[in-house]
Amino acid sequence: MSRQPLKVGHRGAAGHAPENTLLSVETALSLGVDVVEIDIHLSRDGHLVVMHDARVDRTTEGCGYVRDLSLAELQALNVPTVAQVVDTVMGKSALMLELKVRNIARQLVELTALTPEVPVFYASFLHSELLRIRELDPAARTIALLDGVPVSPAAFAADAQASYAGIAFDSLEPAFVSSLKAAGIGIFTYTVDEPRDIAIARALDVDAIISNFPDRL
Ligand code: G3P
Ligand code: CA
Fold first, then answer.
1. Residues 30 and 210: beta-carbon distance below 8 Å
2. Which of 103, 169, 189, 196 is the most core-located residue (most Cβ within 10 A)?
3. Mutate to test the pocket of ligand 1, among 100, 191, 193 (most ligand atoms within 8 A of CB)
């Protein structure tokens, strides 16, 4: 019999609330997620903040690159810090922290070390940043994200010394899944919103499903 995959709320619960906001995180918690996924950038003055895009234009009333804005400017646009999200989920869920930029691994590991009671998964498409996380915290749970099906199915995750592969749902071919499992690599899949697709991911016995609508999982 299949296990119950972890329920991961994407950008909080982006199907129900503005993505990557504290409201979205709180909504995900109210829907009973196991894990809240957020995206991380760095402000001009060196604070870890929660935003998907490199620019704030799409999701806020501001404009410009996150890296060019101060924390005060970002907070005025309702952009939370990672520390605020950690405080919000404490005792309620785990976190999946996606590093969208380089050179924040040490700061992120130091921040999460302050609250060991909050379980953390570190994820990135920038696989060398996951190696950096692994150096800093040998026991870290890391997720190498991938959109596509490589020739060598497990090499990318092994190269990243990742605990898990985070595979785009459209790339979740059964043979790929089998190869990852045979290599001892756990599987997250993103972003799975349609009930039919959720059923397919479940049937493939993945470890975790990431959805904008975690209530559907
Ligand atoms: O973490 C999986 C997924 O969130 C990666 O894609 O673009 O939604 O950050 P994206
Ligand atoms: Ca993400």
1. no
2. 189
3. 191
Look at residue 100 in the predicted model and tell me its pLDDT: 99
Query: Which residues contact ligand 1 via a Cβ below 6 A?
Result: 10, 37, 39, 52, 98, 123, 145, 166, 190-191, 210
Which residue, 102, 154, 166, 94, is CA-closest to 133?
102
Cα separation of 120 and 94, whole Å?
Answer: 6
Which pLDDT does position 1 carry in this prediction? 47
pLDDT above 70 (res 121): yes
**Residues whose CB falls within 8 Å of the CB of residue 151, separated by 6 or more in sequence, listed in order:** none
Query: How does pLDDT run across 41-60, given as a tens digit for each residue?
Result: 999 999 999 999 999 999 99
Q: Residue 197 and residue 169: Cα distance in Å, rounded?
A: 8
pLDDT of the residue at 18: 98
Under DSSP, the state recorded for 28 is H
Kindly provide the b/e burial profile for residues 170-182, where b requires at least 16 CB atoms within 10 angstroms of the residue's own CB: eebeeebbebbbe
The predicted model scores a pTM of: 0.98
Fold of the domain spanning 6-216: TIM Barrel (3.20.20)
Question: How many angstroms does the Cα of residue 140 sit away from the middle of ligand 1?
Answer: 19
Domain positions in the chain: 6-216
Ligand 1 atom showing the smallest separation from residue 191 Cα: 3
